[in-house]
Design goal:
The protein has 192 residues and is mainly alpha-helical. It has seven helices and five strands; from the N terminus they run E-H-H-E-H-H-E-H-H-E-H-E.
Length: 192
């Protein structure tokens, strides 16, 4: 099951814990608190995150997003290079509405590797839970990963939501009759 997350339907889908079941609360009751509780990236990267949201929400008055939804989305990204992120933060401040600076979009700035690694951590934790609870035909972590990989799509992960770490910890403490719920079903962004 995949779940569409409201913040940025124009760019990404939030991928659910596909095999866990349950449904998203859709509210602000995520375990990690508000969008600013765990920002990804360096100070320069965070300036780029804020500059993108200032540009689209404040300067260009986007009807497709609020500041909160933009921040939740962009603050999930780490950046490839601080110099480029810093330059792009400045460029967004100088850009005219309708003409975002070239080479400063998510695909150019965001580093997907932390999200891919986080997704794989979550997949391993989920498989450990399944194997420990005898809830899968898989006997090993590798077998379980092979069965579950298409549901997680870790190779396409681009960002980690602020509550990722808390949900990962929670997964390790679930009883066999429990499944992740609420925002723990949506902990990372996948780009298509």
């Amino acid at each position: 099951m995949t779940a569409m997350r409201k913040p940025a339907p124009w760019l990404c889908l939030a991928i659910a814990f596909a095999a866990c079941g349950g449904s998203s609360s859709g509210g602000s009751g995520n375990p990690g608190g508000d969008a600013g509780s765990t920002r990804r990236g360096s100070e320069a990267c965070q300036r780029w995150q804020d500059a993108v949201c200032d540009y689209f929400v404040t300067k260009c008055k986007s009807k497709d997003m609020t500041w909160e939804s933009c921040a939740l989305h962009y603050q999930s990204f780490a950046c490839l290079a601080d110099d480029q992120a810093g330059e792009c933060a400045e460029a967004y401040g100088d850009a005219d509405c309708g003409s975002p600076p070239e080479g400063c979009d998510r695909a150019s700035i965001a580093d997907p590797e932390p999200a891919v690694a986080g997704c794989n951590q979550q997949l391993d934790a989920y498989c450990t839970h399944l194997i420990g609870c005898l809830s899968t035909s898989a006997k090993t972590l590798d077998e379980c990963r092979e069965i579950q990989e298409s549901k997680f799509m870790c190779d396409n992960a681009v960002g980690l939501y602020p509550w990722f770490e808390e949900c990962l910890d929670l997964l390790g403490t679930l009883a066999c009759d429990e499944n992740p719920s609420g925002d723990c079903l949506e902990t990372y962004l996948v780009s298509f």
